[in-house]
Amino acid sequence: xxxxxxxxxxxxxxxxxxxxxxxxxxxLTGDDIxxxxxxxxxxxxxxxxxxxxxxxxxxxxxxRFGKTIGSPIAMIIKNKDWENWEExxxxxxxxxxxxxxxxxxxxxxxxxxxxxxxxxxxxxxxRNILERSSARETAARVAVGAVCKRFxxxxxxxxxxxxxxxxxxxxxxxxxxxxxxxEDIFFNAEASDVRCPDKKISERMRKAIDMAxxxxxxxxxxxxIAVTGVPPGLGSHVQWDRKLDGNLARALMSIQAIKGVxxxxxxxxxxxxxxxxxxxxxxxKGQxxxxxxxENWPMEPRFYRKTNxxxxxxxxxxxxxxxxxxxAMKPIPTLYKPLHSADIKTKKTFQASxxxxxxxxxxxxxxxxxxxxxxxxxxxxxxxxxxxxxxxIKRNYRGYLEYLRRF
Length: 407
Fold this sequence. Notes:
The structure is a single chain. The protein has helices at 30-41, 49-52, 82-85, 114-121, 127-133, 138-153, 182-190, 199-214, 244-253, 274-277, 362-385, 390-404; strands at 3-7, 14-20, 57-61, 63-64, 67-68, 73-78, 158-166, 169-170, 221-228, 258-263, 281-283, 303-305, 313-314, 317-318, 323-329, 340-342, 349-351. It has a domain at 133-404: Chorismate synthase AroC (Chorismate synthase, AroC fold, 4-Layer Sandwich), CATH 3.60.150. The two termini are 29 Å apart. A hairpin with a 6-residue loop joins strand 1 (3-7) and strand 2 (14-20). It has twelve helices and 17 strands. The strands form six sheets. It has a five-stranded antiparallel sheet. Strands 1-2-6-3 form a four-stranded antiparallel sheet, covered by helices on one side. A two-stranded antiparallel ribbon has the order 4-5. With 407 residues, it is of the alpha+beta class.
């Protein structure tokens, strides 16, 4: 079983992630992780923080001579902005004259964790909440996801994403998900600074972001995640907490500002007849290989579907089709034209505090989405094909593919 924890504050010394359960002998370098960290930082509409930070990981344990050794992998991402916040974020006792009390944050921002967190933990200085609830924490989760992507790559499984809507500007219908074109869609999205596969719509999205910036406002949007090369049988129907779609939805909803998740057709299925919503099953003899991995797996299934309205998951289990997910992100709650709020100490009405923030972070959120989905798929894969080393898992996986050929 895979599990991980993250630690660190937005303006603290560093972010830390510990990933446990990754099998031994997986080739892994800092570059594998830094590539994903870099993808998280780019995107039209990001704020000034991204100009300061250049996230790079330090692998502190769990890897020796370029390969995992089976022990927990500890990763550290230093905050370059710490030098500007050292006095405010100092972990020692505050001395006389150090950081005047007037610098406390007492005005909660609507839509943020500020007020609920302050009430829960008994803080009158909301910085104790906003520092940890900040989406800066997701850099650590992207590092974890990068390791999981590296693992999945050994088995020909790819996790991709792209943005389909920002501020009501949507991609055209020709980019509706088709399994045969997923990699092309992803390739086009990677070339866009809003991670949208349609060039014309990308330009309209940028204009919408520019207008929001001019108005001191922010924008949300929707992104899609696609996972290809997934064999049937990941997850389980026998208990609620083993259902793959349930765990994927939980992972995506755990990302800051995500307010909705769909699998496959999602909410649209509620408007359809059953005959329109369900994917018919077909069978073909023979079993050729697909994929470009060194093992040339997974194998082409004999049972297949011509549509994928289920999003690759039925009954809490992968069915062999690509896993397709959508996630909706609300607008960033920190506004440069702030909403009204009530001071947590004086109880007087004020305009909410303004922290340095993005105008739109949907492109970055899609990369974070890839990371948390990669973790859940890797976890389900290890649960199904268990082993303490990559070679052992590969032997188990080969055996499963041979077993599937009997059907």
